Amino acid sequence: MKNLLYKIALPALALAFTACRPDQVEHLKDSKRIGIEAENWEVKRIMPNDLLHATRWAGDSLTATADSLLRRTLARELAAGGVARAIAFCRPETYRSVDSLAGVLKATAHRVSERPRNPASQAPLLAEEMRPDTVRTIKRLSQEVFFYQRPIVLNNQLCLRCHGEVGKDIAAADYALIKQKFPQDQATGYKLGQPMAAWQLSLQRNGVAEFWTMKTRKKWKEHKMPKLF
Fold first, then answer.
1. pLDDT over 80 at 220, yes or no
2. Which pLDDT belongs to residue 30?
3. Band of the pLDDT at 151, cuts 50, 70, 90?
4. Which Pfam families match (predicted)?
């Protein structure tokens, strides 16, 4: 009887191993995407401190993306046509990819300065008591709204061509062009390492909460250059 069982079991095992060869297994289509969706839809308990951490994380991600795109864009445009060409691209909050990311985060982003290039077009501060300074600020303004602020420091030599000292960093012809386009310009006279403005973001609670729960979200990569407008 025992020999009979061996005779039956061995061919069955051989058949099973043959049937499970990797080249014959039909894999579930889009299994990676399904796993990501399952992870993101998993119910998670979010505490108030989690939302503040998510606000900082979301704000850092959005502003770092905008600053990186701005540096690359200005380098390209300055090389192609100098200040006359680059000056039109110095508003990263209007870039299409930045605006798209803000939409995902349900955020409104502005850059504010006490010495703006165009005072007439500067957005009002999101909180009157929060003046642009050198401190990163994260606060909950209400049950549904979070506030994020981060200083903008002039740390790129290229920025001096529009925001440095007139006659030293900014050529006379370029300064005349800036004054022609922005008669009330105040954004010159800066030095490397000096804070010159601040990012201010207003973020909705549901956008912050969703960002916190998305463990599988992809980070923006420098080597990818999205369309700007």
1. no
2. 58
3. very high
4. Tll0287-like (PF11845)
Query: Alpha-carbon distance 95 to 101, whole Å?
Result: 10
What CA–CA distance (Å, rounded) separates 93 from 66? Answer: 7
C-beta atoms surrounding 90 within 10 Å: 18
Q: Which residues contact 78 (CB under 8 A, 6 or more apart)?
A: 85, 86, 158, 161
Helices (H) and strands (E) in the chain, counts: 7, 4
**Other C-beta atoms within 10 Å of 67: how many?**
18
20-69 residue pLDDT tens = 444 444 444 555 555 545 554 554 567 888 899 999 999 999 999 999 99
3-state secondary structure (DSSP) of residue 204: strand
% of the chain with per-residue pLDDT over 70: 69
**The two structure tokens encoding residue 198:** 């601040």
Of 154, 153, 160, 152, the residue nearest 83 (C-alpha) = 160
Do 22 and 172 meet the contact criterion of CB atoms below 8 Å apart?
Answer: no
What are the structure tokens assigned to 127, written together? 């909180």
CA 25 distance to own-chain centroid? 41
CA separation for the pair 139, 9 (Å, rounded): 68
